[in-house]
Amino acid sequence: MNQPKPVLPTRSYKRIATEEAFSPPEMIRIYEKILEGKDVDVGFKNLMGFYMSSASERAQHIMRSLQDMDDLRIAHMDASGVDIQVLALTSPGVQIMDKATAVAYAPEANNFLAAAIARHPTRFAGMIAVAPQDPEAAAKEIQRGVNQLNMHSVVINSHTHGEYLSDTKFWPIFEAAEAMDTPIYLHPNALPEKMIQPFLEAGLDGAIYGFGIETGLHALRMITSGVFDRFPKLQVILGHMGEALPFWAYRLDYMHTATVKSKRYPSVQPIQRKPSDYLKNNFHITNSGVAWGPALKFTQEFMGNDRVMYAMDYPYQYVPEEVSILENIDMTPAVRQSFFQDNAARLFKIKL
C-alpha cells in the first residue's frame, strides 16, 4: 500500500477526515468466536468473515490498519495530508453480538478509543459506540461518552440484527443523542438476511452498491416514521454523499406525498415537512469514498455548504491522491475551509 505523497497546496486550515474506522484487537477475537458458531449471519460471514480470513493484499491492509492506533495510522494520515481522524468503531461494531456481549463490550471499545485519543490528542477524535440491542443502556453510554470520555458523536452501523431505528423501541437512543447534542453517524452495515441474496449473487452487496441502498433505506425509514418530528433537534450524519438521497430528493418528496394521499400503506402517514426538508435540516453529509467534483458540488448546493464534510473512509478506501483531487475542485476559499475543517470541528466539537 505504499503510495507517493500527493502534492498539496499550502493552506491555513486542517483537514479533518470524518469517517475513519478502527477495531480493538479484542473485538476481532469476539468476531472469531461468532464466526465459529452455528447460524452465522450471512452478511457478516461474507463481509467481515472474508476480510478476517483472506490473504489478499486489500484484506491484509484493512485488518492491519483497523487495529493500529499509532505509528501506521498516523503515517498513512501524513502521507495523504490528513491532520485529524474522527474515529468510529468499524462496522458492524457491537451490533452483530448478542445483547449481553454487546452491552458489556461497547464501553470497552469506547475506553480503548479514548486511550488512543489521549496518546494522540491533536490527531484523533472519536465517536461513541453503543449497543442498540439495549436502548436504555445505549442512552447511558452516550451520556458517559460525552461526560467522561469527551466524545461528542455516536456511531450506529445501520440495522441491528435486521431491526431499524425507526422502531419506537429504539427511540431512547434519539432522546439521549438530542439531549446531549451528539449527532449520530448512520454508517453502513452488511445487508440483513432478508435483503442480501440478490446482491450476493451479483457481488453487489458491499460498498459498491448494497451498503448505500440499505443505509439510505434506514435513513428514509427514520424520516417517514416521524423520528424528526418527535426529535426536531436530532442530527444524523450520512456518508458516501448521503447514500445518494440528495439525488433522489425531488422524487422522494413527490412520491411520499402521493403515497400518503393514496392511503396504500398504514405505515406511511403524514409528516410535518417534506422528506427533503428533513435532509436539509436534520442531516449532515460526508463525501467518504466519493472524490468526484460534480457530486460534491451538487450536494453542497442541495444541503448548504455548512452541512457537507470531508471524509476518506479509511482504511477501506485509502487513496491519498483523492485529497489533492478534492483540493483542486473549484470552491471558494471559505467553502473549501468549511468542507475540510470548519463543519467537522463545529459538529464534532473538536478544539483546534
Features:
51% helix; single chain; globular; 352 residues; 9 strands; 6-stranded parallel beta sheet; alpha/beta; 3-stranded parallel beta sheet; TIM Barrel
Would you write up a description of this structure?
The protein has 352 residues and is of the alpha/beta class. It has a single domain (16-347), classed as Metal-dependent hydrolases (TIM Barrel, Alpha-Beta Barrel). It is built from 17 helices and 9 strands. The protein has helices spanning 25-36, 42-46, 48-53, 57-67, 71-80, 99-119, 135-147, 171-180, 193-202, 210-224, 227-230, 240-243, 245-262, 275-282, 293-303, 321-327, 333-347, and strands at residues 16-22, 84-89, 124-126, 128-129, 154-156, 184-186, 236-238, 283-286, 308-309. The strands form 2 sheets. A 6-stranded parallel β-sheet has the order 4-5-6-7-8-9. It has a 3-stranded parallel β-sheet with strand order 1-2-3. Helix 6 (99-119) links the parallel strand 2 and strand 3. The radius of gyration is 19 Å and the shape is globular. It starts with 15 loop residues before the first strand and ends in a 5-residue tail after the last helix. The mean pLDDT is 97.
